[in-house]
Amino acid sequence: MEAWFITLVSFCVCFLIRAIFSLHSSPTKASGKAIITTPPGPSHISIITRLLWLRKSFTELEPTLRTFHAKYGPIITLRIGASPAIFIADGALAHRALVHNGSLFSDRPEAPATAAILSSNRRNISSASYGATWRTLRRNLASEMLHHSRVRSFSGIRKCVLNSLLTRLKSASESIHSVRVIDHLRHAMFCLLVFMCFGERLDEGKVRDIARVERQLLLRLGSFNILNFWPSVTRVLYRKKWLEMLRLRKEQEDVLLPLIRARKQKQKQAKESGLNDDHDDVVSYVDTLLDLQLPEEKRELNEGELVTLCNEFLNAGTDTTSTALQWIMANLVKYPHVQERVVEEIKQVVGEKKEREVKEEELHKLGYLKAVVLEGLRRHPPGHFVLPHAVTEDVVLKDYLVPKNGTVNFMVAEMGLDPKVWEDPLAFKPERFLNDEGFDITGTKEIKMMPFGAGRRICPGYNLALLHLEYFVANLVLNFEWKVPQGGDVDLSEKKEFTVVMKNALQTFRIGQNGPYRVRNGPFRTPKSRTKTTPRTTHSEIRTARSGTHPERPVLPSERPVLPPERPVLLSRTARSPSGTARSPSFL
Ligand code: HEM
Ligand SMILES: *[C@@H]1O[C@H](CO)[C@@H](O)[C@H](O)[C@H]1NC(C)=O
Ligand SMILES: *[C@@H]1O[C@H](CO)[C@@H](O)[C@H](O)[C@H]1NC(C)=O
Ligand SMILES: *[C@@H]1O[C@H](CO)[C@@H](O)[C@H](O)[C@H]1NC(C)=O
């Protein structure tokens, strides 16, 4: 099989070279006036490139797509294999498609062969075709789980998860090993969603178990695409991959099914004993799913479908949110004046309390914080594309035909960086959102950016995601001063995983590890350490003792209790200091 594969790859390379040549030598002619054609694009891409395409994701093809857009305009067609793929890179056009003609642009393309196994035949919200089943599943999620009052019922767990994240970060910053911040952020988000999904706090090991299985599958998903190329053949040729996929799905069922069954059992017992409203119990996503009837088949969900839907719930809100959170924190490290302004705003609005905590109910007063989160989503949307859309019938958009048999996608990252819409688009300037009286992230009136998509398929979790981002950003900067050690920098290069993540993840460093730093001076206190009788060495003291430099503002021990508590420093920079500019090269 190895030799076979090498031959195939060399074939692909040959065809690709040919395709590139033909692309340069024969620019597409303008279409005739009378006939409506699909949007322009490179005249022909060899069928073999479809194979390459299947092996890659949109994001890896983004630079190529960008050059096509520069050449052919904001809406283009790529012919890869049988069905045309249309890409829209312009907010106004996206608005016309997704909002004005939302009823036509809200379908999803046919599911690939692997979906039969991985999603119980498209029984998840994101891949379901636009119809009664999708509507039922989506309405259940939106109105049963993501409704304001339901979301509020989970505020206790958010506080819990936040506290444990702060503790972890604190001990990470004291550890001699540098620790990847993203791992802690992802774990925190995962804990939140696991609780919302199953309604109970699972022990650490169990949560990690689920996370491991979910992540494995997520990261391998792209590589299973090859199985869809020509299913009956590739399934045999790539037998190992096929078996691996089956195994991963099985593992997923093994960890999720016991939790689902336990919930079902609990519900049954509650019904039998007539204790329907057990009021110290939360309603979990599984509970809502167990009550659901599929409208088309008129039956309840089976176990495979429950696993699929829980899996979607856990995945959709974990990687996306933690990726966004890391990007925002990275920018706050890189631009300390932005971080200071967030802290100032919190201190003004929330007041200087003993406890370093921004409560959920206080978030709505923090306009600058909101702007920081929006700017983070504009500059670094976790997904550079939405999920592929399809039209329910042939549609004419901007004088072009969008055929039913094609796919439509939207270039989210491009829209956020469009110089026609955004002034100085590469800069991180939250202020740009302060002028807008309440920026509309859903794009109902106009689309300036769409990190959550827009229209009927818009991410139903956007409110929960924004709440999580605002709550965690506020409390992370209030509890630590995030900064780089001297000589370090934050590298904002991108890397494609399931979402577009930081190539060099943010890491924590112990203060005093690599020489003198200019750190804030002041007692290091957290609610926990304050209760201890023996005062612990403060971070700045470690620094002072080791580096021997004078603190900026000398503090006598006797003065300490009088000073307002300052934030301890969390040194953080990206794994490798970049040698060149900090701009992401793909946007140059
Ligand atoms: C920062 C965090 C998040 C981002 C950036 C994000 C982004 C997106 C995007 C771009 C889409 C595709 C929209 C389209 O195809 O037009 C989507 C769909 C979806 N998201 Fe999110 N999402 C986030 C968090 C969440 C959360 C917390 C949940 C739920 C708990 C969630 C659940 C879903 C679901 C179920 C869909 C499929 C909707 C459908 O096809 O009808 N997402 N999201
Ligand atoms: C897709 O649809 C268009 C317009 O309806 C049609 O011209 C084209 O032949 C179709 N292509 C395939 C591969 O079915
Ligand atoms: C599509 O949008 C145009 C305006 O952009 C509108 O005139 C037309 O009625 C819409 N069609 C449908 C089916 O919504
Ligand atoms: C939904 O199912 C599709 C396959 O039909 C799969 O590719 C996708 O990853 C699933 N979505 C989520 C969020 O789990």
Verbal overview:
With 588 residues, the chain is of the alpha+beta class. The chain has three domains: 1-65, no CATH class; 132-483, Cytochrome p450 (Orthogonal Bundle); 494-587, no CATH class. Helices cover 48% and strands 8% of the residues. The chain has 21 helices and 13 strands. It has helices at 2-25, 47-55, 62-72, 91-100, 115-118, 132-145, 148-152, 155-174, 181-198, 204-220, 231-237, 239-272, 285-290, 303-334, 336-350, 367-379, 412-416, 432-435, 462-479, 527-531, 539-547; strands at 75-79, 84-88, 179-180, 293-294, 299-300, 395-397, 400-402, 407-410, 481-483, 494-496, 500-502, 506-509, 569-574. Strands 3-12-13-9 form a four-stranded mixed β-sheet. Strands 1-2-8 form a three-stranded mixed β-sheet. Bound molecules: protoporphyrin IX containing FE (HEM) and 2-acetamido-2-deoxy-beta-D-glucopyranose (3 copies). The site of one 2-acetamido-2-deoxy-beta-D-glucopyranose has 12 residues, from helix 5 and helix 14. One 2-acetamido-2-deoxy-beta-D-glucopyranose is lined by residues 111, 115, 118-119, 122, 124, 126-127, 311-312, 315-316. Residues 538-553 have a biased composition (Basic and acidic residues). Its main location: membrane. It comes from Cajanus cajan. Residues 574-588 have a biased composition (Polar residues).
